[in-house]
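User: Good morning. I'm curious how fe (ii) ion would be positioned relative to this chain. Could you predict the structure with it bound?
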Amino acid sequence: MSAEKLYLKPNVVVEPLVDHWYAWSHLIPPATAAMNIVGRHLKIMESYVKAPQVHSAAVKNPAMLGGPFIDFKVPRVADVQSLIDRTKRERAPLLALAGAIQKLDDLLRQEARGHSLEPLYSRVPEPLRGYVELIYDLNNQPSFRFIEPLLYRSPYYVPAAQSLMLSLITRDDRPFVLSTPRLLAEGDVHLRLPFRHPGIDELFKMKAVPQTFASIKEALQLADEQDAAFAQFLTADPRPPYQPYRGSSVRWRYFGHACILVETAEVRILLDPVLSYTYENDISRYTYQDLPDWIDFVLITHNHQDHILFETMLQLRHKIGSVVVPRSGSGDLQDPSLKLLLRQIGFTNVYEMDEMETLELAGAQITGLPFLGEHADLDIRSKLAYLCRLGQRSLLFAADSCNVEPRLYERLHEAVGDIDVAFIGMECDGAPLSWVYGPLLTRPLDRKMDQSRRLAGSNYERAVDIVNRFHCRDAYVYAMGQEPWLNYIMSVKYTEQSNPIIASNKLIEDCQSRGINAERLFGEKEILL
Ligand SMILES: [Fe+2]
Ligand SMILES: [Fe+2]
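Assistant: Good morning! Here's the predicted structure, ligand included:
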């Protein structure tokens, strides 16, 4: 075997999978994974096997974008049936866990009437015994919480279900991954490695540091028959070297959606990493190649699949100092801990931040600010906006924070003062509750309730209130999901008549008329502050 040192090509897509479904953040914690297997994956796959033509017609209809339909170029009914069979066989404990969650919920609703919950422990369904605490709120509404760290130590957490699918990409066209299982296709290489496997870091280091075929083959435990397919992912061409920012101020670069790199000469901070691979295209963009060799902090704003993306996180793991995540609500089904989750998949340095807590760094401060709304009024705590102070500059990354209560921002202004630059998400229509959280519901939700409770960011009035309140000099609308390379995790397609476009246009015109720099970010942007 050749001693030639090779790089990983910049257009190798690496999809992390759990049981052949794209690994997003509810597929790692055992309880949410169990509910999604039953309430999303098996439902979609069984519907596909019954009527594949309904699915292939639906995915051609733009109105059905992001719906529960499988998007394959050629029908794969037999493969999907075998995935159904295998899932039912190999994930039987998780199916039992999902059933037990449903039964425990029924039990509490029927039997917990305000009297002591102690007699009910012996009636907790067996798969959940020892993993839950039964509780009331102050109005005697019964509920339960998971002892989440124990679930990760139980048979319900199955790293063996995790794998990576490698393929080449040449254009912005990937099927929506929440509705379509990822089956092996010609030219793909499937690596059956748990996400925490150190070989994964060795692979991604090869984007910058070359390695021999033999050494990466060993690190990834590749089989001989995978050699030829894997070899197509390697190249002798080095990537262009990264030019770090060495100025005395602050440079920020927009990578698409809510992903922004903030650099000073001392510190590099990356927010909500979602990145394009590098290939010929019409829309200018920063890609993986435009990231520094070392990122001091990755800040995650909230637990939605377009803000915490393992596909990107795993590729960066070897060069991230610390990941900062918002603190979760401790054991609620709908609010799994991001800290536990990231630790399970191999991130060793995860810092859980609270509202109004500040991390002091050399020449910089990162403060977690409350993030209201955008979670369909569910009790979900793992969400923060971040205020970054770098030298004399302050930047607010509000992500999808919805200003449902301007009095909050009044109090925040009293606490933190004016802010130079605000990045605000204005996806003000938002998906209904069921789109993300449907599989977690133990009772069907009335359609009108579902439609009224949305994952919506700020509209014009709410966004302009933030800009005015903090006397921002610059206001950028971001996190709009418009970049075509993110279609696979987003399901938005706006026209000029879409509310988020009308609302953000209005904000931009209003700001510009008052001398505030304002823009809706798209593609790429670089600003020196
Ligand atoms: Fe969100
Ligand atoms: Fe978002």
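The chain has a mean pLDDT of 96. The first strand starts at residue 5 and ends at 8.
Let me know if you'd like a different ligand tried.
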